[in-house]
Amino acid sequence: PGERSATDPSRAVTLGVMGGGQLGRMFVHAAQALGYRTAVLDPDATSPAGLVSHAHVHTAYLDADGLARLADAVDAITTEFENVPAEALRRLAERRPVAPGGDAVAVCQDRAAEKAHFTASGVPCAPYALIETEAQLAAVPDALLPGILKTARLGYDGKGQVRVADRAALAAAWAELGRVPCVLEQRLALAAEVSVIVARGADGTVVHFPPQGNLHRDGILAVTTVPAPDVSPAQAAEATACAGRIAASLGYVGVLCVEFFVLADGALVANEMAPRPHNSGHYSIDACDASQFELQVRAMAGLPLVAPRLHSPCVMLNLLGDLWFDAVGRERTPDWAGVLALPGAHLHLYGKAEARRGRKMGHLTITAASAEAARATALQAAAQLG
Ligand code: ADP
Ligand code: MG
């Protein structure tokens, strides 16, 4: 396979992805639409992406035999989930082109390295302190409280975070998190949250989606609205330029999402970034003329990157496992027929075997001719889903 070029999908070229979650599944769908074969490495035999891929290697991410089998099977490799070890990507890169690269992914996997990279790229982030030792804990400036203590590594969907009001709560929270390396961030008053997705090619071409407006519940993304409400053209341009600079200074290849906080005075502050397609970009499948997953395929395969165009205002609702339970905790089936009877409803279910509270089971994108109409229909859908 190494002799073939990934730019010719008509010749049974295979693209590989590390991780088999819903992002991998939507990547696989986009790759297959362009004529590629796909291979997924994921330890779970029933992973959402593994179920729809041509090949599925079920081993741990660092398993030497699994990595060798994936490399043998594919022409280029990407990753779909933040916590695939950067080391696995570095090892794969000895055999095949890997995008994004292990070094860029490693920066995104460590909140301290990530914030240092934002600062080095001239992008502001929330005031913070690194806490790795008792001495650093004691030296935290008062100005960072009340704050949010976050583990430097392995957090997602609000996990690995504790809100702390004062020093006593901070010390208790650090103990609760096992005294692993953490960052303490000042808790900011957020006027809004937006994210920007860029795709960067190996030749340095950068294209972007319009900023998305995001609403989180309990630390988990709940609703994405595009165009982002209450974001001025100047703010949109600034967020996009920041994301482009962050990608360029990482030498990044592939799709990258940067999350921003919008403060009361309109200032933008970078929160975190994800080295992959992002939940807040799922709407692009139905509301744009190229999805974030197609751009990931194009970037990793060296195909042209063309600026995607939003053709319909939209609202995306995340479908969490909670919807599969009624008020007294009995299992139920959400009213799909009711939702699909709504105009512009695009339902995506990830094929996960078991619904659990807080687990991302699918998403619903409502497209419409106007932002108002999309919002009105999304409200109806939310009411129908209960
Ligand atoms: P995760 O990796 O779980 O997405 P984030 O750092 O993005 O973690 O935090 C999840 C959510 O918590 C954010 O989207 C935001 O709503 C809230 N949050 C995080 N950090 C801060 C902060 N410094 N000030 C105010 N709210 C915050
Ligand atoms: Mg986040």
UniProtKB/TrEMBL annotation:
<dbReference type="InterPro" id="IPR005875">
    <property type="entry name" value="PurK"/>
</dbReference>
<dbReference type="InterPro" id="IPR040686">
    <property type="entry name" value="PurK_C"/>
</dbReference>
<dbReference type="Pfam" id="PF02222">
    <property type="entry name" value="ATP-grasp"/>
</dbReference>
<keyword id="KW-0658">Purine biosynthesis</keyword>
<keyword id="KW-0436">Ligase</keyword>
<keyword id="KW-0067">ATP-binding</keyword>
<comment type="pathway">
    <text>Purine metabolism; IMP biosynthesis via de novo pathway; 5-amino-1-(5-phospho-D-ribosyl)imidazole-4-carboxylate from 5-amino-1-(5-phospho-D-ribosyl)imidazole (N5-CAIR route): step 1/2.</text>
</comment>
<dbReference type="InterPro" id="IPR054350">
    <property type="entry name" value="PurT/PurK_preATP-grasp"/>
</dbReference>
<keyword id="KW-0547">Nucleotide-binding</keyword>
<feature type="binding site">
    <location>
        <position position="150"/>
    </location>
    <ligand>
        <name>ATP</name>
    </ligand>
</feature>
<feature type="binding site">
    <location>
        <position position="193"/>
    </location>
    <ligand>
        <name>ATP</name>
    </ligand>
</feature>
<comment type="function">
    <text>Catalyzes the ATP-dependent conversion of 5-aminoimidazole ribonucleotide (AIR) and HCO(3)- to N5-carboxyaminoimidazole ribonucleotide (N5-CAIR).</text>
</comment>
<dbReference type="Pfam" id="PF17769">
    <property type="entry name" value="PurK_C"/>
</dbReference>
<dbReference type="InterPro" id="IPR003135">
    <property type="entry name" value="ATP-grasp_carboxylate-amine"/>
</dbReference>
<dbReference type="InterPro" id="IPR011761">
    <property type="entry name" value="ATP-grasp"/>
</dbReference>
<comment type="similarity">
    <text>Belongs to the PurK/PurT family.</text>
</comment>
<feature type="binding site">
    <location>
        <position position="216"/>
    </location>
    <ligand>
        <name>ATP</name>
    </ligand>
</feature>
<feature type="binding site">
    <location>
        <begin position="155"/>
        <end position="161"/>
    </location>
    <ligand>
        <name>ATP</name>
    </ligand>
</feature>
<dbReference type="InterPro" id="IPR016185">
    <property type="entry name" value="PreATP-grasp_dom_sf"/>
</dbReference>
<protein>
    <recommendedName>
        <fullName>N5-carboxyaminoimidazole ribonucleotide synthase</fullName>
        <ecNumber>6.3.4.18</ecNumber>
    </recommendedName>
</protein>
<feature type="binding site">
    <location>
        <begin position="271"/>
        <end position="272"/>
    </location>
    <ligand>
        <name>ATP</name>
    </ligand>
</feature>
<dbReference type="Pfam" id="PF22660">
    <property type="entry name" value="RS_preATP-grasp-like"/>
</dbReference>
<comment type="function">
    <text>Catalyzes the ATP-dependent conversion of 5-aminoimidazole ribonucleotide (AIR) and HCO(3)(-) to N5-carboxyaminoimidazole ribonucleotide (N5-CAIR).</text>
</comment>
<feature type="binding site">
    <location>
        <position position="111"/>
    </location>
    <ligand>
        <name>ATP</name>
    </ligand>
</feature>
<feature type="binding site">
    <location>
        <begin position="185"/>
        <end position="188"/>
    </location>
    <ligand>
        <name>ATP</name>
    </ligand>
</feature>
<feature type="domain" description="ATP-grasp">
    <location>
        <begin position="115"/>
        <end position="301"/>
    </location>
</feature>
<comment type="subunit">
    <text>Homodimer.</text>
</comment>
<dbReference type="InterPro" id="IPR011054">
    <property type="entry name" value="Rudment_hybrid_motif"/>
</dbReference>
<dbReference type="InterPro" id="IPR013815">
    <property type="entry name" value="ATP_grasp_subdomain_1"/>
</dbReference>
